[in-house]
Every structure is written in structure tokens, then in C-alpha cells.
Amino acid sequence: MRQHVILLHGLWFNRTVMALLARRIRKAGFQTHCLSYPSMKENPSNNARYLHDYLQSLSLEVKEQSVHFVAHSLGGLVVLNFLDHYLDFPVGRVVLLGSPVLGSDSAQRLLEFPLGSKMLGRSIEENGLLNGVSFRQNGSQEIGMIAGTLSFGLGTLLGSGGGKNEPDDGVVSVSETRMPGLADHLCVRVSHSGLLVSRQVAEQTCVFLKSGVFQYGMKA
User: From residue 188, how far is each of 61, 97, 98, 145 by CA, in Å?
Assistant: First the structure.
């Protein structure tokens, strides 16, 4: 029986941006499910409930086994909110891709612009992009984080990210991804959006889903 993986996108997008990554994960032997959620119209906590409802709608075959999660950027905050509030669904391993779990400097700087709040919507509310997630790690989840270090994206235009004199993916700095309690943390030289199309990132994601650790020294 193949293991199931739920993929969640980041802010402003929908499930179609996860298609390539999902295809590569399927080739590694998993069954994938890409979920669209209202990233701007609802806050991460409400979207966690949306995720819970989606999981409940899946077939009995899926619900009888642990499911894995792979989430990009804001999607990672939604998953952490889900893990923090819903204990009635068995969860396997979790891979977060460039998720600013400790809060986003890019979001803070975008708010300084006239249309910034409209662009971010409710994603910045409690346990969201502005201040990060207050996640209570209970020791049962194996969570891995892949962070990008190629500074190319919105953050460079806003003066955030690289302006802090530390590695970043153009939107999220590496330090914003270092949540306490992670099972493993890996830096890859790709941009924020590049995390979704990098073959190396896809391979490392599958390695973690199968083993709970990343494979260091893997070629790009």
C-alpha cells in the first residue's frame, strides 16, 4: 500500500504550483494530493481547519494510515497550526520548504507599502506570516525544513532578507526557518520559488519522507 502525501502551496497561489513536485514525489512511490486553500481570505488557523475538513473527506483507505505533509512557505504555517490543534488524524512526516515559521521580515516590510495589507490579507494574523507560529512540539512529529540560499525574489526588492546580512532565498531568511524541535534542517542553493522546481529539493524531500533525515552530500 502506497503512503499518502498532502501538498500545500504558499501565499497567492493554488495547488497547480505543486504539480511538478507532486509528480516527482509520486515517482518515488508515494500517492499525492495537492490542496488549494484561501491563503489570503482566511488566516492560517482557519486554513488549518480547512485542511482538517479536507482530510476528513478523503477515502477510508487514506484515513486509516498516517499521511505525510509537504508544504511551501505559508503552507508550512498552515500545517503547523493543524498539528497544534487537531489530534484526531494520524500524521507521518512533514517537510517544510522555505516556511518562515519564526515570522517573515518580508511580510513586515510589505506592510509599510500602501497596498501591503491588501496583498497579504489575513495571512499575517495570529500564528501567521507576521509573527510566526507558536508551535508546541510534543515530540511525536518528525519535521524537516529545507531552506533556500539563492537571494532572488520579493525580499530583495523590499530590502529585507539579504539586508540582514544572512543567507536568504530572496523572500525568507534561513534564520526565519530555524524552528526549535526540527528533526533536520537543510540549506540548498535555490530561490524561494525555486524550492518548488528543484530536482534536488524533490529528492531530499523524498529522502526525509522515507527516513526522517536528509541526505547530506547529495549532488544538485
Answer: 35, 10, 10, 11
Q: Which domain holds residue 73?
A: 4-103+143-151+176-211
Which positions ≥6 away from 64 have C-beta within 8 Å? Answer: none
Q: What is the amino acid identity at position 147?
A: A
The residues, ordered by sequence, that sit 6+ positions from 33 with a Cβ below 8 Å of its Cβ are: 4, 5, 6, 7, 58, 62
**Is the pLDDT score of 71 beyond 50?**
yes
Q: Could you report how far apart the first and last alpha carbons of the chain are, in Å?
A: 30
User: Using one digit for the tens of pLDDT, what is the confidence trace for 119-143?
Assistant: 999 999 989 999 999 877 655 789 9
Residue 36 falls inside a structural domain = yes
Domains identified in the chain, total number: 1
CATH number of 20's domain: 3.40.50.1820
**What does pTM read for this prediction?**
0.92
**C-alpha–C-alpha distance, residues 33 and 70, integer Å:** 10
- pLDDT (mean) for 181-197: 96
State the pLDDT at residue 50.
95
* Cell numbers standing for residue 89: 488524524
Whole-number pLDDT of residue 154: 63
From residue 22, how far is each of 118, 150, 193 by CA, in Å? 30, 23, 15
